[in-house]
Amino acid sequence: MKQNTTRIILLAIMLAFGVALFYFWKRNKKEDVVYKTKQPYVTDISLSSIATGKIIPDEEVSIRPNINGIVSKVYVEAGDPIKVGDKIAEIKVIPSISNLQSSKNSVSQAKIDFDNQKKIFERQEKLYKKGVISINDFDNSKADFDQAKQRLSSANENYQIVKTGTAKGFNSVANTTVKATIGGIILDVPIKKGNQVIQNNNFNEGTEIALIADIQKMIFEGTIDEGEVGRIKEGMPIKVTVGAYPDKSYDAVLNYIAPKGVEKNGAVEFEIEAKLNLQEGDYLRAGLSANANIILDEVKDVLAIDEGLLQYDKETKKPYVEVAVGEQQFERRDVEIGLSDGIKAEVKSGLTKEDNIKEWNAIGLPEAEKKK
Predict the structure, then answer these.
(1) What's the whole-model pTM score?
(2) What is the 8-class DSSP label of residue 134?
(3) Angle subtended at Cα 167 by Cα 163 and Cα 171, rounded to the nearest 5 degrees
(4) How far, CA to CA in Å, does 310 sit from each of 22, 36, 160, 320, 358?
(5) Alpha carbon distance 273, 282 (integer Å)
(6) C-alpha–C-alpha distance, residues 199 and 175, integer Å
(7) Bridge partner residues of 218 (DSSP)
(8) Mean pLDDT within 195-201
(9) Rounded distance, CA 22 to CA 272, Å?
């Protein structure tokens, strides 16, 4: 009985010892690994910088009146297409009482002077015909009469301008009808019927009647960081993407870089502008936010590899890759790298399209291979 018990205990110990050995063997056993490979490929690589900004019209005209008054009628709304000469608004002149009275008095005074000079001229004309006075005296009298006539005409015109806003012969200069000076789209009409407007003069830019822009001539206006401004120049091609149309890009050319930067949030930024090459049917609204992809450098149809395949020598810092020479056997090969965009890198020498390059991330063997 005691012998059976002892055997059972020894068997249990041996079994436990065997399980422990298997556990530690399993735990310390290294997983078989295999490395995947990738081949070089031919592609285009471009290095670019992103600038943020908005779309604005290249030609934007503010229409302002050249007379004071009250808006009596508005013909357009924001978004309406317009051509040169189309009516925008009508202005009713409301004259100042003091100016009206002053101009009326000037007419009366000019009329008195004119009547007096007319009488003198008629008397001098009779005396000249009788030979009493010389031709010089007659000419002086006629000149005084003509000047009085001109002053009366000028006073009447000034009275009409003060009263109605225009006068005969000045319809093209001062007009109660405000018309478009360029064709395009009405961007804004800040006035309404009944609003008072002020004419454009040397001391006041006047009241804006409407804002017109040619939407076929749009530009991108944005800013770029000081770290990138030294790498760009006028004439560079740009791809502009608009937030409202994410699936479409527009070609543009960089045509302006600000000579002076502006500090913003601790960083210096430079203003840039690029003219968009819009195609027939393209329609962009002014003020849309946009991003400009400025192509700093570009190569086409070059041999390239993924940036993640590159390794760098710890001492020389030169790039190299590991190329397969057999089944899971690799050798180091130095390569010369050209342009890189951070995802793919141009290979100038050291590789061919047929080479299989080792990936860094090792993976376990498939279950079927393990069983073999």
Answers:
(1) 0.55
(2) -
(3) 125
(4) 40, 14, 85, 6, 9
(5) 19
(6) 11
(7) 57
(8) 83
(9) 70
